[in-house]
Design a protein that fits this description.
Elements lengths: L1 E6 L7 E4 L10 H7 L3 E7 L10 H10 L2 E4 L7 H13 L1
Antiparallel strand pairs: 1-2, 1-3, 2-4
Length: 92
C-alpha cells in the first residue's frame, strides 16, 4: 500500500497521510482549515515498514476506512509535575 505524506504549515510535527498524491477529497474541510496548506513530504510504501511516531497498522486501517490518517506530535511532558511526583514518591 502506497500513501502520500504531507506536513502541516500551521501545526509543528503534524502530518497527514492520504491514499493519492494531492487528493484531499476524503479529508474534512474543517481539518484542512486547521492543518493549513499541506506541504508534500514523500510517497511511502507502508508494507514491511515501521513508522517512528505512528502504528503502521493503524495508519493502513485509517487509510482504508476513513481515507486519511492524521499524525499529531506526542504530548509535551510537564517537567515540573514530573519532578514534584518524583520528590513526593521519594519522601513517602
Amino acid at each position: 500500500m502506497l500513501c502520500s505524506i504531507y506536513k502541516s504549515s500551521k501545526k509543528e510535527n503534524t502530518y497527514l497521510y492520504i491514499n493519492k498524491k494531492d487528493d484531499f477529497s476524503d479529508v474534512p474541510d474543517s481539518l484542512m482549515g486547521t492543518f493549513g496548506a499541506p506541504q508534500f513530504v514523500m510517497v511511502l510504501k507502508l508494507e514491511g515498514r515501521k513508522l517512528a511516531l505512528a502504528d503502521v497498522e493503524k495508519v493502513k486501517e485509517s487509510l482504508v476506512t476513513v481515507g486519511y490518517y492524521l499524525q499529531v506530535p506526542p504530548p509535551i511532558t510537564n517537567l515540573l509535575h514530573q519532578y514534584k511526583a518524583e520528590k513526593a514518591s521519594q519522601t513517602s
